[in-house]
Write a structure and sequence with these properties.
The structure holds two protein chains of two kinds. By secondary structure, chain A is mostly beta strands. Chain A is about 0% helix and about 55% strand. In chain A, strand 8 and strand 9 form a beta hairpin. Chain A is globular and about 45 Å long. Chain A starts with a strand and ends with a strand. By secondary structure, chain B is mainly β. Chain B contains no helices and eleven strands. Classes of the chains: A mainly beta, B mainly beta. At the A-B interface, strand 6, strand 10 and strand 11 of A face strand 5 and strand 10 of B.
């Protein structure tokens, strides 16, 4: 069965600084990988996804993620964070095993300080 | 226009009661989902429906029964509520099943069982 690990529960970054959120997955075949963001009191929104091809994926709001098969990682990056980026970030892996199912990590809470 | 809406937003009830949460999407999507997010923000799929047909049924107590009267609606009925059912329940929809299309989430229903 697939699984996702987000090692950082909480990260604090200064506004304007760069950001990297870590995600490691476990899945036997080529994974479908996703990053979702959850703003306070809201549902989740897709930032980006990787299915195949170029391992550097561009998403919305200036985010990007890089798929590294050798490290089983799919880390999310942003060169310069804004206060509005404060939210909970979830990495997810998808598996087509008879049916389509997303398995989410436990999330990383991002705090932005002025 | 709200893409995926849920009612109610908050639900406080006592143990043993029966309650329902309603979900509607106006995106014309074929697939709808129910997720449960616990107090530690862990998000886990419960059910998915494709065009009114049950696709995913995770190991959820049979006190939980989803109902899809049409492909735009997926309601969740919970019998004999227990303290452990307290969580935020998210409805989501996607264009089709089997392709890991982007999932659009509703704002969530916070259920508190006392």
């Amino acid at each position: 069965a697939q699984s996702v690990t987000q090692p950082d529960i909480h990260i604090t970054v200064s506004e304007g600084a760069s950001l990297e959120l870590r995600c490691n997955y476990s899945y036997g075949a080529t994974p479908y990988l996703f990053w979702y963001v959850q703003s306070p009191g809201q549902g989740l929104q897709l930032l980006l996804k990787y299915f195949s091809g170029d391992t550097l994926v561009q998403g919305i709001k200036g985010f990007e993620a890089e798929f590294k098969r050798s490290q089983s990682s799919f880390n999310l990056r942003k060169p310069s964070v804004h206060w509005s980026d404060a939210a909970e970030y979830f990495c997810a892996v998808g598996a087509l095993q008879g049916n389509e199912k997303l398995t989410f990590g436990t999330g990383t809470r991002l705090t932005i300080i002025p | 226009d709200t893409a995926v809406s849920q009612t109610p937003k908050y639900l406080v009830t006592q143990m043993g009661n029966d309650k329902s949460i309603k979900c509607e999407q106006n995106l014309g999507h074929d697939t709808m989902y129910w997720y449960k997010q616990d107090s530690k923000k862990f998000l886990k799929i419960m059910f998915s429906y494709n065009n009114k047909e049950l696709i995913i049924n995770e190991t959820v107590p049979n006190r939980f029964s989803p109902k899809s009267p049409d492909k735009a609606h997926l309601n969740l009925h919970i019998n004999s509520l227990e303290l452990g059912d307290s969580a935020v329940y998210f409805c989501a929809s996607s264009l089709r099943t089997g392709y890991f299309d982007e999932q659009y989430f509703g704002p969530g229903t916070r259920l508190t069982v006392t």
